[in-house]
């Protein structure tokens, strides 16, 4: 299994099942996608900014629901193995990605797993155990939280420095950017509201390359 980062903006995700698992997946995808959750019951869980449709499709009806909503991804999170299987089958027939929440282990082609995710926008880190151990994904995600915290600011700073360093040759630019991400002073400045992290980075670049911006 190979991780990719997919932009779901403007795409539809159809989630079958409104229990805690369906709600969790709906919340996750509703950050970007147009999410529809189909379920006979909805609990107190939050479903994010998603549309809820009260229905309990039979396995034979699932195909019609995919035709009706035409999703890029179908999530099978019901407590019925037969319904989840039908969702997977119907998605395969249409070449739509599918996620089975009720299966671990090996996947067939075109089937995706939802990894544990840590964000500090625009940085995102995801952990998968190849669908073998969700509880380990969760544990590692918790460990990664402190590593990723603050990385969003560093991504924005180095993103804009890349543009400012446009005139430099590529080797010097690489040396400069590596020095910035390796610098404790820059990380500290990003974490200190009153500090000017950009200026600290410029000083680090001058030290590392002998060139000034
Ligand atoms: C294969 C996969 C399919 C998919 O959903 O894509 C899948 C399947 C199953 N999970 C089950 C159980 C649990 N899942 C969690 C938690 C998470 N599960 C997630 C993903 C995945 N779960 C995919 C693999 C990801 C990978 O590659 O590692 C996470 C990472 C993302 C998310 O779902 O948002 C999220 C953590 C998010 C976070 O904290 O950051 C916990 C932990 C807890 O609750 O404490 C438990 C209880 C402990 C246990 O059982 O391990 C069961 C049995 C159900 C039953 O017995 O009824 C199945 C089905 C089966 O095993 O057959
Ligand atoms: N991937 C994961 O992280 C986890 C997966 N699971 C698996 O995911 C499944 C769902 O977990 P929970 O949300 O905790 O279960 P749950 O039993 O609380 O919720 C199932 C939901 O599916 C709905 N439903 C039933 N028939 C339906 C149909 N025909 N069409 C649409 N919706 C239908 C029910 O009304 C209910 O809202 C479990 O059966 C379990 O196998 C469980 C825990 C974690």
TrEMBL record:
InterPro entries in UniProt: Met8-like, NAD(P)-bd_dom_sf, Sirohaem_synthase_N
The keyword NAD is assigned to this record: yes
Catalytic reaction(s) noted: precorrin-2 + NAD(+) = sirohydrochlorin + NADH + 2 H(+)
One Pfam entry name: NAD_binding_7
A single MF term (Gene Ontology): ferrochelatase activity
Sorted UniProt keywords: NAD, Oxidoreductase, Porphyrin biosynthesis
Biochemical pathway: Porphyrin-containing compound metabolism; siroheme biosynthesis; sirohydrochlorin from precorrin-2: step 1/1
Enzyme Commission identifier(s): 1.3.1.76
Keyword Zinc part of the UniProt annotation: no
Gene Ontology process terms (BP): siroheme biosynthetic process
Descriptive protein name: precorrin-2 dehydrogenase
Native source organism of the sequence: Halovenus carboxidivorans
């Amino acid at each position: 299994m190979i991780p990719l980062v997919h932009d779901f903006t403007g795409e539809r995700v159809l989630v079958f099942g409104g229990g805690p698992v369906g709600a969790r997946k709906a919340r996750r995808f509703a950050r970007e996608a147009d999410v529809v959750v189909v379920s006979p019951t909805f609990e107190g869980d939050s479903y994010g900014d998603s549309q809820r449709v009260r229905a309990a499709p039979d396995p034979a009806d699932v195909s019609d629901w995919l035709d009706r909503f035409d999703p890029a991804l179908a999530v099978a999170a019901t407590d019925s193995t037969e319904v989840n299987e039908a969702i997977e089958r119907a998605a395969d027939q249409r070449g739509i990605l599918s996620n089975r929440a009720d299966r671990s282990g090996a996947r067939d082609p075109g089937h995706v797993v939802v990894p544990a995710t840590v964000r500090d926008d625009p940085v995102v880190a995801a952990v998968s155990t190849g669908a073998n151990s969700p509880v380990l994904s969760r544990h590692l995600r918790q460990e990664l939280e402190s590593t990723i915290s603050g990385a969003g600011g560093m991504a924005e700073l180095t993103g804009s420095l890349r543009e400012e360093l446009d005139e430099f040759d590529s080797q010097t630019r690489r040396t400069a950017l590596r020095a910035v991400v390796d610098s404790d002073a820059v990380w500290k400045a990003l974490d200190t509201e009153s500090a000017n992290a950009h200026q600290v980075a410029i000083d680090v670049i001058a030290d590392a390359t002998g060139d000034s911006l």
